[in-house]
């Protein structure tokens, strides 16, 4: 089905959290637009220690200022200061792949749920139990998710490798990258000027998208 919005992201990337309202607005306004998620492996099971916290805080402050996205107290004063935050992009991407396999129309919502749980609620989203809870909130049966998550863990490396190859072909420099595909042609969208302005982003793309 065309057109397709290819959303190249990392589920634990702060700037992907910043762009989430833009992607959500496009998906809501253009229900015939197929959104395909291409997850990256930005963080490989990395535990965040005290020396990285201030760097993260500075980045979060910039993201909040540019995008208006909120960072909850449970994240800022709880998770960040706990010394126990672990960033594991492959685990989270595997959970999104699991939801995509079981309920394809809920994959984007699962990504957004992970972002909210991390940045607003300060939850440990690399924890399989937390991921299972988030999937259940998306309407996925916990037992079904467990099996699909195991399968997702098996194929997430190839998924990430495919994302990186796609980025190399496009000349994409990082996350997030939004690509509009129409009639076999791919266009990298300039979204940087639209943070905090999802309606303007929708209007800018309206001529290229189905009514």
From TrEMBL:
Residues 10-183 form the DSBA-like thioredoxin domain. It comes from the Bacteria. It holds the Pfam family DSBA. Gene3D superfamilies: Glutaredoxin. InterPro entries: DSBA-like_thioredoxin_dom, Thioredoxin-like_sf. This is DsbA family protein. It comes from Halomonas koreensis.
